[in-house]
């Protein structure tokens, strides 16, 4: 099984979640984890499963303006967050918009504040929708991993992400055994 995990991350949480998901999948085969700025024009059809995640900004995927706000927040003297090396790059929204129609299996995730999704929104909803429009079959419901109000990953979320990755790989194996 060949898996690609693509992530966007301003403060490092979605990056950590992406690495944890990859650890959960690793027993099942080869996993590549890349920040969205480094995916370039990789041939996605070469992967059995493509997993795409980003932070929730203003109820959905980030935009140039929200990434700028995040950079400004990180620059405040009382800031508790630090910027990822790739934070200034384009986000998942722009990358997905640049992709040609494709096929294969995919799934979406996000990070968002620990509160009801109706209030916070969730980037994975838009990511999943776009993946489907591109031609991917979504093998599972999208998932959110939660941060506190200081944008710090809640306890236990990395473990949960690892287990989620593990269950995705099992589901992928199961879907291959179903008669078509
Ligand atoms: C500009 C901005 C807007 C945000 N808007 C939301 C939001 O609408 N809903 C939410 O749950 N979290 C929101 N957040 C919190 C982010 O979801 C959180 O910082 C992110 O998940 C952390 O991921 P990262 O460390 O990978 O950047 C926002 C954060 C920023 C900087």
Brief synopsis:
By secondary structure, this protein is of the alpha/beta class. It is 38% helix and 21% strand. The protein has helices at 13-25, 64-75, 92-98, 117-120, 123-134, 157-177; strands at 2-7, 30-35, 49-55, 104-113, 136-138, 143-147.
Give keywords:
single chain; 180 residues; alpha/beta; Rossmann fold; 6-stranded parallel sheet; 6 helices; 38% helix; binds flavin mononucleotide
Describe this structure in words.
By secondary structure, the protein is an alpha/beta fold. It has helices at residues 13-25, 64-75, 92-98, 117-120, 123-134, 157-177; strands spanning 2-7, 30-35, 49-55, 104-113, 136-138, 143-147. Strands 1, 2, 3, 4, 5 and 6 form a six-stranded parallel sheet that branches. The structure holds flavin mononucleotide. Flavin mononucleotide binds next to helix 1, helix 2 and strand 4.
């Amino acid at each position: 099984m060949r898996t690609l995990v693509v992530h966007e991350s301003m403060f490092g949480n979605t990056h950590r979640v992406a690495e944890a998901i990859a650890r959960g999948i690793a027993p099942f085969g080869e996993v590549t984890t890349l920040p969205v700025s480094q995916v370039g024009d990789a041939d996605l059809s070469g992967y059995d499963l493509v997993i795409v995640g980003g932070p929730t900004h203003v109820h959905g995927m980030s935009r140039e303006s929200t990434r700028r706000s995040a950079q400004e927040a990180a620059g405040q003297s009382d800031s508790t967050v630090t910027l990822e090396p790739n934070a200034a790059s384009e986000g998942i929204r722009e990358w997905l918009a640049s992709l040609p129609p494709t096929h294969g299996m995919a799934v979406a995730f996000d990070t968002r504040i620990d509160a009801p999704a109706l209030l916070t929104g969730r980037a994975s909803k838009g990511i999943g929708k776009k993946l489907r429009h591109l031609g991917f079959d979504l093998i599972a419901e999208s998932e959110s991993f939660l941060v506190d109000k200081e944008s710090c990953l809640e306890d236990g979320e990395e473990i949960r992400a690892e287990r989620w990755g593990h269950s995705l790989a099992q589901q992928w194996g199961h879907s291959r055994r179903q008669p078509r």
